[in-house]
């Protein structure tokens, strides 16, 4: 049975898709992320900036988590939801666990490097003391289409 997706999740995904488009326009892989608090309000956002910042950790998820922590004045984001256009990688999944994010909602699955259910499932690993609820495939085609359009000319 699929996990529920709220109107706030859908609106945040639309916002994240806009951020992903902005990242692509700036020459970065089109990934956007938004952090929602328990009430569904945006408390952080980010778009990939690895190329712009020459920073290997400047993934949309990490930037959004940093912004949310600054906004809320706490590293502990247990009552928050991260909404992101692409399934988080190993680094970002680790950041989700370190921030104690309660839920992640993502668009496109990443069969090669995803760490929330496809290639790996770090955020739900029973050996770890904390687990994240995962909802994948929200606006999947829109997110995947941005990635295909970005990578097509590069292949």
Q: What this model shows, in words?
A:
The protein is of the alpha/beta class and 155 residues long. The chain is 37% helix and 17% strand. It has 5 helices and 5 strands; from the N terminus they run H-E-E-H-H-E-H-E-E-H. The chain has helices spanning 7-25, 50-53, 60-72, 90-98, 140-151, and strands at 32-36, 42-47, 81-86, 103-108, 133-135. The protein has a 5-stranded mixed beta sheet. Strand 1 and strand 2 (42-47) form a beta hairpin. Helix 1 runs parallel beside helix 5. The longest helix is centred in the first third of the chain and has 19 residues, at 7-25. The radius of gyration is 14 Å and the shape is globular. The N and C termini lie far apart (37 Å).
Uncertain spans, ≥5 residues at pLDDT below 50?
none
- Counting DSSP E segments of at least 2 residues, the number of strands comes to 5
Strand content: 15-25%
Neighbour order of strands in the largest sheet: 2-1-3-4-5
Helical segment tally? 5
Radius of gyration, in Å, reads 14 Å
Mean pLDDT: 96
End-to-end separation: 37 Å
Q: Oligomer, anyone?
A: single chain
State the share of residues found in helices, binned by percent: 25-40%
Structural class: alpha/beta
> The biggest beta sheet, please?
5 strands, mixed
Order of helices and strands: HEEHHEHEEH
- Shape estimate: globular
């Amino acid at each position: 049975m699929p996990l529920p997706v709220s109107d706030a999740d859908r609106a945040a995904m639309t916002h994240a898709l806009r951020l992903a488009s902005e990242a692509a326009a700036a020459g970065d892989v089109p990934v956007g992320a938004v952090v929602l608090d328990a009430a569904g309000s945006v408390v952080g956002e980010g778009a990939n900036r690895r190329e712009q910042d020459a920073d290997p950790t400047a993934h949309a998820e990490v930037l959004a988590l940093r912004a949310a922590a600054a906004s809320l004045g706490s590293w502990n984001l247990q009552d928050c939801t991260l909404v992101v256009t692409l399934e988080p990688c190993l680094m970002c999944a680790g950041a989700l666990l370190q921030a104690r994010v309660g839920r992640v909602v993502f668009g496109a699955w990443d069969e090669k490097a995803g760490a929330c259910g496809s290639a790996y499932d770090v955020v739900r690993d029973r050996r770890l003391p904390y687990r994240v609820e995962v909802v994948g495939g929200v606006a999947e085609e829109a997110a995947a289409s941005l990635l295909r359009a970005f990578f097509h000319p590069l292949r």
